[in-house]
From TrEMBL, chains A, B:
Region (Disordered): 1-20
Chemical reaction(s) catalysed: L-glutamate 5-semialdehyde + phosphate + NADP(+) = L-glutamyl 5-phosphate + NADPH + H(+)
Gene: proA
Name the UniProt record assigns to this protein: Gamma-glutamyl phosphate reductase
UniProt keyword Oxidoreductase, yes or no: yes
Amino acid sequence: MSDLMNTLGQQSKRAAQQLSQLESAEKNDCLMQMAQDLENSSNTILAANQQDLSRAKENGIPNPMIDRLRLTGERIKEMAEGIRQVASLPDPIGVVEKMWRTEDQLMVGQQRVPLGVIGIIFESRPNVTTDAASLCFKSGNTVILRGGKEAFYSNQALVELMQQTLRHSQLDPAMIQFVNDTSHDVANEMMRLNEYLDVLIPRGGAGLIQRVKNSATVPVIETGTGNNHVYVDHAAQLDMAISIVANAKAQRPSVCNAIETLLVHEDIASEFLPMIEEALTPHQVALRADSRAMSYLKQADLATEADWATEFLDYILAIKVVASIDEAIEHINRFNSKHSEAIITDSYHNGQRFLKEVDAAAVYINASTRFTDGFKFGFGAEIGISTQKLHARGPMGLEHLTSTKYIIYGDGQIRE
Amino acid sequence: MSDLMNTLGQQSKRAAQQLSQLESAEKNDCLMQMAQDLENSSNTILAANQQDLSRAKENGIPNPMIDRLRLTGERIKEMAEGIRQVASLPDPIGVVEKMWRTEDQLMVGQQRVPLGVIGIIFESRPNVTTDAASLCFKSGNTVILRGGKEAFYSNQALVELMQQTLRHSQLDPAMIQFVNDTSHDVANEMMRLNEYLDVLIPRGGAGLIQRVKNSATVPVIETGTGNNHVYVDHAAQLDMAISIVANAKAQRPSVCNAIETLLVHEDIASEFLPMIEEALTPHQVALRADSRAMSYLKQADLATEADWATEFLDYILAIKVVASIDEAIEHINRFNSKHSEAIITDSYHNGQRFLKEVDAAAVYINASTRFTDGFKFGFGAEIGISTQKLHARGPMGLEHLTSTKYIIYGDGQIRE
């Protein structure tokens, strides 16, 4: 282990003890100050961002990626507003979820406590820095942030600014830390920093998630890959189905809660498929259909086996005609990434079966998968969408960044 | 990856789909039948156990370990009773923990579902086989069991028996599987079987837990190490303190919820330490004291720095005199394994501080740490005691072997 990661780990762990004991008001005051300092220091941040942008252009980084990297006065305002919103959320720490009396007359309560030290490995968007840092801070966790090299200067400037606010608030600046080395070696060390990290959350593309999953011995929460489906049942209201499929595919195809494959019951395929093709045409969605679906479509390519397993994140939709809800559920459970799945149906029985039998973080009847989102679920925040089953599944808000401890009130009880 | 682990993984994953859809009554009937079949086949099990015992004696395995390995008619009855008790517990699967209406008028419910496939790596006691298998089965999870080589024949016979019951119940026998290879290589493969295993739970000594923690890329739930403390505050009722310390240390020192270190406030050390020495004498507890504590004790060795960090699991107690509750909390948070900690005090303020500031799965006021136990907490079962913060912390019952999924009832909602 390099000195860098060991030092960051030790400092974060020490700071976690102080942070876990802060009152909500202290945390909120500090967050409000961070937002203010961020707005006041726009110029510093924009200058650092300019360094990243210049380097990106030199390196021939594609334009959409440069756009994601670019900060503006407006975007910095939004980041500050994001921090203020986190400050306004209820503090999960200290809440006793339940309390009961045992047979031995002990009062046992389960109380929310911070996880401790959270590692975040993320890719280009610099707004993840302030988002993640404020959520970790509010939930009583120190954080070690390791961003991508493209946004290095922006991320570093943002963290330095937040550390300055911490210092001015008489708090340990190590509550929010930055890994100022973007090499793979250091990232790999972070994935094995079991002594100091309580959890590691990768935020980024499928490649990053896979790399972390294969290498990390620190507990990981996988986020984000969404190979999602809408199944249009024979008993669907077709107008509703069209509106939902168009929304789930084309409203914002680059996000993880968009869909990639449409499954259509054979009884309605001849009527529905031409309708959905027409509805998707204005969005220029390319269709990749199985042979049966092809016969009802004007313009489509033949889908390959690989298409069923691909998260396109683009204006591409795979389409398959199925003979039954059983075939739909089987296809979904085979190919999905356990993120978000929807059935469109007026059949009570089929809706209930779909909810019960489909394995995913979020399963919908008659709604767009695009609602899988911490804000839309009412959590007031989102650190990511977990696609694993351990600890947290689905959209993660502040509560999902906590653990619990049992607090037990006795009166001299001993065990016989 | 070897064929063995790949095949087991595939089979378990396929069986998990069937198991996740079983009704509670089907699961309970099958468990009751397993218990019956186990009792009816005592002789087969005892014969297999005899093979393990003979080999253990040949290999010069120490007697206490042979005792843990030994099955008797009585022990088999207890194992069967254990299975029946699991059958009688409420089924956690399908429970909707909460349900709410979002701003978009979606009804979102959080429903308990199985984790999927659970791997268990455990050491010598064969009763873990039926315990773990019945808990996993009841909570809708398939299980891959990899026991130690000492109990190989017993474990194998037990799993074969349970698989036979599954077959007779028209269920896939792959719901409960056994790794019939006790090599380290295969254990290491199991720790990296991310494609099929949803979680890995090691059950055994600190060495095993550490090995799994350092090697596994599959999500792990750490269980069991307990370097626990009782802090006797200056405001303690000394008779209560003696009864609790004696219970926590000497009632059963080999278990993870026993204590290893006693911390005593300096104001009461001269009165309390001779009393506790007298109380522990009948149990032949060896004392390892710091220099201040030594001066109040008749017979004690000087504690080394390493003693504070050691889980003795034996009739050994480390003792330290502290100047304040602050020093006690600091010592505990530095050396403990985050398992169970207790303060004995009549001071309301100190009790509350201890609960808030001590970092452990279970923190007690005025009770023995020996209550950290799924049965004593009222969960009706226990698969282990988690000492990590992710997913589950403290005693784990059936509910802790589950995940959740969001089920969402819509009415055509799309995202703007």
